[in-house]
Amino acid sequence: MAIKILSVDDELDLEILLTQYFRRKIKKGEYEFYFAHNGLEALQMMLAMPDFDVILSDINMPEMDGLTLLTKINEMRNPALKCIMVSAYGDMENIRSAMNQGAFDFTTKPINLEDLERTIEKAAEQIAFIKQAQKEHTQLESIQNDLHVAQEIQQTILPKTFPPFPELKSFDLYAYMSAAKYVGGDFYDFFRIDQDRLGFVIADVSGKGVPAAIFMAISRTVIRAIALTENSASMCMQRSNNILCQESVNDMFVTVFYGILNIHTGVVTYCNAGHNPPILMKKDGSVSKVPATGDMILGAISDASYHEKELKLSPGDNLFLYTDGVTEAMNMKHELYSEQRLLENCRTLAGKNPKEVVEKITETVGEFVVGAVQSDDITLLSINYKG
């Protein structure tokens, strides 16, 4: 692309001199020259053609001198526009003023055209660098805008209304997800399977960022679709695994805890596909990890078998689910929040409602890692059975 140069000088001979000296570059399309005879005329041309790269301006001109023109150009705040000022030999005061006002370089009359050519080439190099940086900045802004939209879309995927089923008095539920980046691979979900049963899920996709977010959306859709028609927690995981194995790219996988709560009896049938064990918080303040079912992650090996177990919630009990972004949260000393610390904090929350449990655990994690960057997505889900 040609470098567009606007020469501003009240001496007409300069136009002939420049077009003659740079005729080869003009012919090759490397340079395009335009001419104005004072600062006012130059400004009018710049308004009509705002893509000039170099302004070659005399300082002493009628109507509007070069220093005033330079001030006007500075107001345009275009770092890719370079000004080379021309002054009489020995006019150091004006040259100093021009350089202090941000001129790229200067030359003196009579103009040494070889020296001017080198100066224009030097300006062209800087202009190319700035334009590339501006292009990359624009691309980055576009990517950031896309990520903001993706973040909004991901947040709308997750249920946000709490309590989710106010007409049902036998349980209460609350959940929260905080992505380490714009978007994340963690998710939670819950849904009515029928009049008697509530399905609930917490999951963690391998990796972070956009790839994890896409696989997260696929995983959530697959699990929910199968769960609404499959009575068995283990069969839901088995069927979901076979589908996700077909959809997995770059060996991505997802850990999942899927439970089915009978809202009338408090019995939870569950399958743990390689996920962190939930914590059962009894009304009396005792806490324990929910026994694993010994099953593997989803999306790794097709035709794997999955199993299920049962536990019974008594009125006042709380089932607390989380992802490893909680237990593996790291402080400035590179210490982990840990499963043990989570159990200890859960003991203090007996009798609290799900919202209080989630918010308090989130608070303790924040206090523990204060000052450290969040390294992983953090997701929590709490179910309180009322009976």
UniProtKB/TrEMBL annotation:
The keyword Endoplasmic reticulum does not apply. SUPFAM superfamilies: CheY-like (SSF52172), PP2C-like (SSF81606). Keywords: Hydrolase, Phosphoprotein. The modification 4-aspartylphosphate is found at residue 58. The keyword Thylakoid does not apply. Residues 4-124 form the Response regulatory domain. It comes from the Bacteria. Residues 170-385 form the PPM-type phosphatase domain. This is SpoIIE family protein phosphatase. It comes from Parabacteroides hominis.
